[in-house]
Specification:
Distance between the termini: 48 Å
Shape: rod-shaped
Largest sheet: 5 strands, antiparallel
Number of helices: 10
Order of helices and strands: HEEEEEEEHHHHHEHHEEHEEHEE
Radius of gyration: 52 Å
Strand order of the largest sheet: 4-3-7-6-5
Strand content: 15-25%
Length: 475
């Protein structure tokens, strides 16, 4: 038998799967943290940007000149040197700008929409905010003053924001990596401990052999929800295998004994003929005796083969069925000669149309009825009768063979379905038989998912009752 070396490990696959899930979860967490940090930092950045733009707008004052213009009051501004800003009035006149505002910057556009934009200047990235504001000149005048519109463009570098975001994301990434390094060995250890019941179960199952069927599953496996079904299945399988091996051993031993006895009887008949010169009549009688012995040997082998066929035959793809009532009448007709020789009357039930279909082939049903009826005839006294009963109870067909013979002793009753068991200890040629008839009957009934029961008492007759599931014809 080819031994397949294990190439896969459940523990390693589980560890790899858990670590892969953790890795994916960590990557997702890093991406989420990137989005969250970017939103948080830029929200704070935009608040500061708008505050500084409003400060510049607030520094726009009345120029107090004849043209009623506005001006930018620079001394009131205290802004970082790295920021950009520029202020225009409604005529496009530049009121003021930061020192680093260069000609490359956007020119005045009175129709520019307010809001945020981005700009790269000298390799530095800025976020710009355009604000449209207004100032009232001489608000105390009778006309309510003069309205002057102002445009403010303010920009702040974003490098420090991205550094803060990158630092936060790096912190999350380092934390996730540290968790992977810590949880990896921990998961391996936990899985190793979690699989201990499975390894213990496998170790105990490995000690089971043909010579040693003792198997006591560990409590750790029996009490584990996932392993309990496997544990019970192993126990049941091993019990059935042990029973099958024991039955096989008993069958082989009994078969060897029966064959040896039959061969010895045939040999003794030949030896008896060859012991001394015989007359033609004596030789003829000896040959007939030898032929009878060989016929019994042939019958024994045929029954052994039949029993092996019934027990080992696989279930058919399409379950067979037959009507049991015609089979009863057919077998009774075939055994009518035996019944007449023994002066036994066979009482048959009335035929029920399509009411006694059973899950047996016609051949197996005939074998079942033949063995039971022949057994009843052989154990019935002259001038008695054998009753055959057939009835339907719900979805069960019940078939019974009742004789009025000598009955079976109570101590022998539990063994009558055993192979090679004979209730007649003398094993005479007249009644001994092979001891396989009832064993074949039980095998046929169990193959059809039925049951067989025997009831008897000494001098009170014997009744064999067979219950088979009813089969329904497909129209």
């Amino acid at each position: 038998m080819t031994t397949i070396k294990p190439t896969r490990s459940i523990a390693l696959r589980l560890i790899a799967a858990v670590l892969a899930v953790e890795l994916v979860a960590s990557a997702a967490a890093i991406l989420l943290s990137l989005g969250y940090e970017r939103h948080t930092h830029f929200h704070a950045f935009d608040v500061m940007l708008r505050g500084r733009a409003d400060s510049v707008l607030g520094a726009v004052q009345d120029a107090e000149d004849a043209g009623d213009n506005v001006m930018l009051d620079r001394p009131d501004l205290d802004l970082p040197s790295g920021d950009l800003f520029a202020v225009w009035d409604q005529r496009g006149r530049l009121l003021g700008s930061s020192a680093n505002w260069q000609g490359a910057l956007p020119a005045y556009n009175p129709n520019a929409a307010g809001g945020y934009s981005h700009l790269t200047l000298a390799g530095r990235h800025f976020r710009l905010l355009t604000v449209h504001g207004s100032r009232i000149i001489d608000p105390g005048d009778p006309g309510g003053g003069i309205l002057r519109r102002v445009i403010v463009v303010y920009g702040m570098p974003t490098a420090h924001v991205w550094r803060a975001i990158r630092g936060a994301v790096e912190f999350y990434a380092a934390g996730s990596l540290l968790l992977l390094l810590v949880t990896g060995p921990l998961i391996a250890w936990l899985l190793h401990r979690g699989l201990v019941p499975l390894r213990q179960l496998a170790a105990l199952a490995a000690h089971v052999s043909v010579d040693s069927w003792e198997f006591h599953p560990p409590a750790s496996a029996a009490e584990t929800r996932e392993l309990a079904p496997l544990t019970h299945a192993l126990e049941n399988v091993l019990v059935r295998l042990e029973r099958a091996f024991l039955q096989q051993r008993v069958f082989v031993s009994d078969a060897a004994h029966e064959l040896k006895t039959a061969v010895a009887v045939a040999k003794s008949s030949l030896q008896l003929v060859a012991l001394k010169p015989r007359t033609v009549a004596e030789y003829q009688s000896g040959v007939e005796r030898c032929l009878a012995d060989i016929a019994r040997l042939e019958d024994l082998v045929a029954k052994m083969l039949t029993l092996a066929r019934v027990e080992s035959a696989p279930a058919p793809a399409a379950p067979a069925s037959c009507d049991l009532a015609p089979v009863l009448h057919q077998i009774a007709a075939e055994l009518s000669g035996v019944a007449q020789l023994r002066r036994v009357r066979v009482n048959l039930p009335a035929t029920a149309s399509d009411a006694s279909l059973v899950a047996l082939t016609a051949e197996d049903a005939a074998m079942l009825v033949s063995n039971l009826l022949l057994n009843a005839l052989q154990h019935s006294p002259p001038d008695s009768f054998v009753d055959l009963h057939l009835s339907t109870l719900d979805n069960v067909i019940e078939f019974a063979v009742e004789d009025h013979g000598e009955g079976i002793a109570p101590d022998a009753l539990p063994h009558v379905f055993d192979r090679f068991y004979r209730g007649d200890p003398s094993r005479t040629r007249a009644t001994g038989g092979a001891g396989l008839g009832l064993a074949i009957c039980r095998a046929l009934v169990e193959k059809a998912s039925g049951s067989v029961h025997i009831a008897s008492q000494p001098a009170g007759g014997t009744t064999v009752t067979v219950r088979l599931p009813r089969a329904f014809s497909v129209s």
